[in-house]
């Protein structure tokens, strides 16, 4: 039984543990969905209120799903649900692609960028495996007329690059490429270089190559790995293909729905407050009951 003593560079130093050992636990919702599992969830959710549904999980969730249908809508397989919620905090936009957290991180930044081109506005973002939230203190300029343009597949990757700092992500990814290719040396005899030193050397090489030889195959490799691994390019394109073929359902509400509530709770974990999380969740529940 070991315990962590310290972390230096990429090495974890451990020692024999004394006393009682604690098993680590992790937020299960942060494990990203695969594309196949996302498709399976959309299929199951589509028929969730069907009286013939035999799965015990769906029967257990029936009251919650019925609440979702009453307050908003449960999307069918060929539908894409968008919720606009206005409350005392401000304006909330929720979308439910069911594509997993990794894809939703990129989609949230992309949708925020496209909306910001309609009117000056600032957003905070939160997401889980089912959907994502864009929150603003200003009214979000989104309606049935412009929603199709916001969710279009046209100019997709160019807008993604504009919504994030792809060059910085590629520069960080280039460090591993530079080490493997031998452009930078990770170890000297009897000495290991620090991560900061490696990143500095690799970053300098990346900048020179990008400025004077932008088509260098290692620079292209860095961008390729960013698009495939971090930006989930293929899954993102497939998701927007599916959304374009789907019927867009836009719903308005004055309080959080069962689908939006977990995303909102996830955003509470990332905000600074003197109240504990349970107290803040109870406040949201009481507000929802009052509105109902």
TrEMBL record:
Matching InterPro entries? ATP-dep_Helicase, Lhr-like_DEAD/DEAH_assoc
Task: Name a Pfam family for this protein.
Answer: DEAD_assoc
Lhr-like DEAD/H associated domain: residues covered: 74-260
Entry's Gene Ontology molecular function annotations: ATP binding; ATP hydrolysis activity; DNA binding
Per the UniProt entry, the signal peptide is: none
Q: Which PANTHER family match?
A: ATP-DEPENDENT HELICASE LHR-RELATED-RELATED, LARGE ATP-DEPENDENT HELICASE-RELATED PROTEIN
What name is this protein filed under?
A: Lhr-like DEAD/H associated domain-containing protein
**Species this chain originates from:** Chryseobacterium endophyticum
């Amino acid at each position: 039984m070991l315990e962590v003593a310290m972390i230096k560079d990429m090495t974890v130093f451990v020692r024999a543990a004394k006393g009682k050992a604690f098993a680590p636990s992790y937020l299960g919702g942060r494990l990203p969905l695969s594309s196949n599992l996302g498709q399976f969830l959309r299929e199951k959710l589509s028929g969730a209120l069907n009286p013939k549904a035999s799965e015990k999980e769906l029967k257990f969730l029936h009251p919650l799903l019925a609440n979702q249908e009453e307050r908003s809508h449960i999307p069918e397989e060929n539908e894409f649900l968008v919720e606009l919620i206005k409350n005392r905090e401000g304006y909330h936009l929720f979308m439910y692609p069911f594509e997993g957290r990794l894809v939703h991180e990129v989609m949230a930044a992309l949708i925020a960028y496209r909306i910001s081109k309609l009117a000056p506005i600032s957003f905070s973002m939160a997401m889980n495996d089912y959907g994502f939230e864009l929150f603003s203190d200003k009214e979000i300029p989104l309606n049935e007329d412009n929603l199709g343009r916001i969710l279009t597949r046209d100019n997709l990757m160019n807008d993604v690059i504009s919504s994030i700092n792809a060059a910085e992500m590629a520069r960080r990814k280039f460090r591993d490429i530079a080490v493997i290719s031998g452009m930078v040396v990770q170890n000297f005899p009897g000495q290991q270089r620090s991560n900061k030193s490696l990143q500095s050397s690799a970053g300098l090489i990346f900048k020179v190559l990008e400025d004077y030889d932008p088509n260098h195959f290692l620079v292209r490799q860095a961008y390729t790995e960013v698009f495939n691994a971090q930006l989930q390019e293929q899954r993102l394109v497939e998701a927007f293909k599916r959304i374009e073929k789907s019927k867009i359902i836009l719903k308005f509400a004055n309080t959080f729905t069962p689908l939006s509530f977990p995303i909102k709770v996830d955003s509470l974990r990332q905000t600074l407050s003197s109240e504990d999380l349970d107290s803040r969740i109870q406040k949201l529940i009481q507000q929802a009951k009052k509105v109902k």
